[in-house]
Amino acid sequence: QANKRIVEIVLMSRNSPETGIRMLNSITLHELDITRVALSGGEPLAPYIDAYDIDLFLSKDDKDVQTVIDSRACAAASIYAPPKSFNPKDNRVKIAFDADAVLFSDESEHRYKTEGIDAFLKHEKENEDNPLKKGPFAELLIKLSRIQEHLPTTIELSPLRLSIVTARSAPSHMRVIKTLRKWGVYVDEVYFMGGLSKDKVLEAFGAHIFFDDQEAHLEVTSKVVPSGKVPYNSSSPMNAIEKKSKPKQS
After folding, report:
1. Which are the contacts of 5, defined by CB distance < 8 A and separation ≥ 6?
2. Residues 134 and 34 both lie in one domain
3. Are β-strands 75-79 and 227-229 bridged in parallel, bridged antiparallel, or unpaired?
4. Side-chain half-sphere exposure of 208, counting CA atoms within 13 A
5. Domain residues for 142?
6. What's 47's DSSP letter?
7. Cα–Cα distance between 209 and 179 in angstroms, integer?
8. Cα angle vertex 212, ends 214, 250, to 5°?
9. Structural domain count of the chain
10. If 0-12 CB within 10 Å is exposed, 13-18 middle and 19+ buried, where does residue 48 land?
């Protein structure tokens, strides 16, 4: 259906209706296509995710993002300040994702961190034909892929372009490809970086937003493209590893 809305933005804020007037006026002034707004008057926003049927929750409030991730209600990320120099190269919407702990579960990443690269590669090779478990952004990717399929153009010419930029390299790359195939998901571009910095690839791709779980990557990528941090579920053993890796403050 030509007039059917495919994607909708819902603006959610802890402002009260009174203090939110300026925000509502800005929507009108800039003629933004935003018709649904939630003003919670200081209350957490996470409980309203299901009520508004949200697929992706973006916020600068880490607590709200963590609550959404823990609830598994939808994909969620804490947004970095966008780079001032960011200037999209074309009008296609380009979204880039990390693989492990974002699209896929953090099990493989945990094995790499705790058992080392050799054990990780051996496990990935032996389980090449077993799909990776879904991560917090898996369902979002699947839905975006379905949107591509239903747009009135071929996927190659779609105004929506999807990319994976991951630290994985051969031979662990095949499990990613085969998992996407099992999910029935088409991704336009995949970059296996093998430990190289992701910023130059993302800048060349022209990502409108990139999602990753590691601050070490995001501190660099956020300087060239809009970026969001995907936190681990509170029950994940990756939290202890992340805490140990952070430099101690004196």
Report:
1. none
2. no
3. antiparallel
4. 11
5. 93-245
6. G
7. 23
8. 25
9. 2
10. middle
Six token digits for residue 74: 């939808």
Element (H, E) at 211: strand 209-212
Q: Which of 44, 41, 35, 28 is nearest to 11 (CA)?
A: 35
Distances (CA, A) of 11 to 5, 35, 237: 17, 9, 33
For residues 73 and 149, state if they share a domain: no
pTM score over 0.70 = yes
Q: If 0-12 CB within 10 Å is exposed, 13-18 middle and 19+ buried, where does residue 75 land?
A: buried
Cβ atoms of residues 167 and 193 within 8 Å: yes
130-184: pLDDT as tens digits: 999 999 999 999 999 999 888 878 777 889 999 999 999 989 999 999 999 999 9
Residues forming the active site: 98
